[in-house]
Design a protein that fits this description.
HdrA-like; binds flavin-adenine dinucleotide; five-stranded parallel beta sheet; binds iron/sulfur cluster; single chain; oxidoreductase; FAD/NAD(P)-binding domain; FAD/NAD-binding_dom; alpha/beta
Length: 382
């Protein structure tokens, strides 16, 4: 048992950081939660509910619940728009904080959080006209200076694969080629699935799996684990909204693990067409449609098909600050570029997708374990 006072810094306010912070606070441990952007929640706070006739276990609502827990917990002190810029190991750690670079502010000068639990909900640039009620100036956000803590949990998350690196799919050229994250945004903003070019309901939809993952040419050999489930759930949502929609999923392998997922997979196979091939390229056709060329495994010759919308199932890549965090906190990086596990007696812990791909449920479970390991390091519950 050591003599730690029981204050932990959690870096990153996605579901991993929120969970670790919340679990630590349950044991009366004070938490300094540092989030680089202006809002807590990370990537998954913006996800929509995928329930159709039943809950599809997408995990989105658990992120909302955890955010509500954290913003109402006095033991958790939140630093928005803040980054770690240095760390000195003393008895515990002295961590230097700095304001993160001002985010890209929306054209009208207003940034909006995804959840009504985001506090503030609106952040505005100076001089923005018609600031919404309760909006906070971006200049007032951000912490600076040194904070002493006894342990550090790193939960800086992932970066979605950049679809422009797969140039033949024309993501930057054709409006109706979108990513899985774009699809989340479209459904959230419109309340239904519409295609970007004209706001019409797409009738023929293609999903392309393993975009950026399991790709030898890119050197990304890992499976991102989440893109098969999210694509199939989204396909289920589209089919439920329009039973006439024709949905095809182009894949090489299917990640079909988990407790509930195999059952859902068997059911969705009756509703959508699975084609085992990697599409080669995509071209525009008249009427905003797209031609997708592929080499079907059993046909041996190239074929092409028309679609109204193509969704690229982009995978989970190492977070963009991984190198910086690795250097400041002295955390090794594994062969895939994610943060590696750190020996438990170092006082530094890695949680969530900063350490490799995972779903919301897996991230919550893993971050809970990290909180437990951190408490053990601190010498038990306070
Ligand atoms: C297209 C797509 C769809 C998905 N759909 C699903 C789904 O339906 N169900 C599911 O279970 N999973 C889904 N996932 C996976 C899900 O997004 C992750 O499991 C989850 O977001 C991981 O949470 P995290 O906290 O580890 O990382 P993130 O969500 O990436 O959060 C990391 C946080 O850390 C902050 N941060 C980064 N760097 C720093 C820094 N230097 N200092 C301070 N803060 C920093 C970021 O701003 C962010 O807030 C999907 C993934 C993708 C790509
Ligand atoms: S887990 Fe997903 S599908 Fe189920 S209720 Fe929550 S948000 Fe909806
Ligand atoms: S989860 Fe599916 S789409 Fe994603 S990398 Fe793994 S096999 Fe490919």
């Amino acid at each position: 048992m050591n003599s730690k006072t029981g204050k932990v810094m959690v870096i990153g306010g996605g579901i991993a950081g929120l969970t670790a912070a919340w679990e630590l606070s349950r044991q009366n441990i004070n938490v300094e939660l540092v989030e680089k952007s202006c809002f807590l929640g990370g990537h998954s706070i913006g996800f929509t509910c995928k329930a159709t006739d039943t809950c599809k276990q997408c995990g989105a609502c658990s992120v909302e619940e955890m955010l509500a827990n954290v913003v109402n917990e006095p033991l958790i002190n939140v630093h928005l728009r803040t980054e770690v810029c240095g760390l000195e190991k003393k008895d515990g750690f002295s961590v230097s904080l700095a304001k993160s670079a001002v985010e890209e502010v929306a054209p009208q000068g207003v940034l909006k959080g995804f959840s009504h639990h985001n506090s503030p909900l609106y952040v505005v640039a100076d001089g923005a006209a018609d600031a919404p009620e309760g909006a906070v100036s971006i200049d007032t956000l951000g912490s600076e200076g040194a904070v002493d803590v006894d342990a550090v949990v790193v939960a800086t998350g992932y970066t979605p694969f950049d679809p422009n690196l797969k140039g033949t799919y024309g993501y930057d050229k054709w409006d109706n080629v979108i990513t899985g994250l774009d699809l989340e945004n479209i459904i959230r903003e419109n309340g239904s699935l519409v295609r970007p070019s004209d706001g019409e309901k797409p009738k023929r939809i293609a999903f392309i799996q393993c975009v950026g993952s399991r790709d030898e040419r890119l050197g990304n050999l890992w499976c991102s684990e989440v893109c098969c489930p999210y694509a199939m759930r989204m396909a289920g949502v589209a089919k439920n909204a329009d039973p006439e929609a024709e949905i095809s999923m182009f894949y090489i392998d299917i990640q079909n693990s988990g407790k509930e997922f195999p059952v859902f997979y068997e059911k969705i196979k009756e509703e959508i067409r699975f084609v085992r091939t990697i599409p080669v390229d995509i071209y525009p056709l008249e009427g905003d449609s797209l031609e997708l060329r592929h080499m079907a495994e059993d046909e041996g010759a190239p074929s092409s098909e028309q679609f109204d919308l193509v969704v690229l199932s982009v995978g989970i890549m190492p977070g963009m600050d991984t190198a910086k965090i690795s250097e400041i906190l002295n955390i090794p990086v594994n062969q895939d570029g994610f943060l590696d596990a750190v020996p438990g007696d170092s006082g530094v812990f890695v949680a969530g997708t900063a350490g490799g791909p995972g779903s919301i449920a897996a991230t919550i479970a893993g971050a809970g374990n990290v909180a437990l390991a951190t408490m053990n390091y601190l010498g038990g519950s306070k």
